[in-house]
Amino acid sequence: MSSTSVPLHISISEKLRQQIEAGDYLPGEKLPSEHQLMEAFNVSRITVRQAVANLVSQGLAQAQQGRGVFVTPRQKVAYALSSPLVFLERDLARKGIQFTFENLTFRKIRPSNAVQTSLQLPDKSTVYLQKKLLHMDGVVGAVDVSYLVLELGQQFGAQLKRQMTFPTLEAHGIVIAQIDAVIECTHADYEISGYLEVPLGQPLIVYRYTAYTHDQSPILHGETISRADRFCYSLSLEK
Fold first, then answer.
1. Where is the HTH gntR-type domain (predicted)?
2. Where in the chain is the domain with CATH 1.10.10.10?
3. Of 22, 121, 125, 230, which has fewest CB within 10 angstroms of its CB?
């Protein structure tokens, strides 16, 4: 594609993106004003606004009403998937990252067929649904949606509203022996876009998992849905 075929607002946003990635504009720094950008690129206000909107949609900039447009802080947290298992909050703690969560809901429901199959439950079973908003160093990074077998939800519900699931279970002798997981892409629906402060339909990372005890009994099925600009997964493999 020739350069003349690239829309002007795209050309400008690409130039700004390159400057951001090169460090000409640092994380948290304010970008030039609309008027300054109009003069710098000799373009109209609407073209500048389109260019800035491109940066915002890519997660590179944040518009703050009445203040201007700022480069998005590039703080990305990595959770190391390892064997033997190291749970999320423990892994982040050893990296010096403050981890907290907000309990959004904890209630008994009738699970979907997919959840029922994953937990190997008979028909008409009920489980506990928990939704948590995960914060890393005070910034929202992910939403965790999990389904816990009924007896464990009844027994530990009060604690699970204040503490993460796996450490709570293991503290009571329920050892997580295995986790089967898949990492793939999903898109923000209306609810998730509000929690993670992203546009509707934005691509997100989903870590979908099922946890088992020593006798291969599944006790928990869930998914952690995260912003790719704030959260990722790392893995080390040995031959």
1. 6-74
2. 8-71
3. 22
Region(s) of the chain under CATH 3.40.1410.10: 77-234
The CATH class that applies to domain 77-234 reads: alpha beta
User: Which fold, 8-71?
Assistant: Arc Repressor Mutant, subunit A (1.10.10)
Q: Hey, is 165 helix, strand or coil?
A: helix
Quote the CA–CA distance of 223 and 205 in Å, as a whole number: 10
Q: How far apart are CA 171 and CA 9, in angstroms?
A: 55
For 173-227, the pLDDT digits (tens) are 999 999 999 999 999 999 999 999 888 888 999 999 999 998 899 999 999 999 9
Q: What are residue 182's DSSP bridge partners?
A: 208
Q: Which of 81, 16, 59 is nearest to 199 (CA)?
A: 59
The residue with tokens 């992203």 is 198
Gyration radius of the chain's alpha carbons: 22
Q: How far apart are CA 107 and CA 105, in angstroms?
A: 6
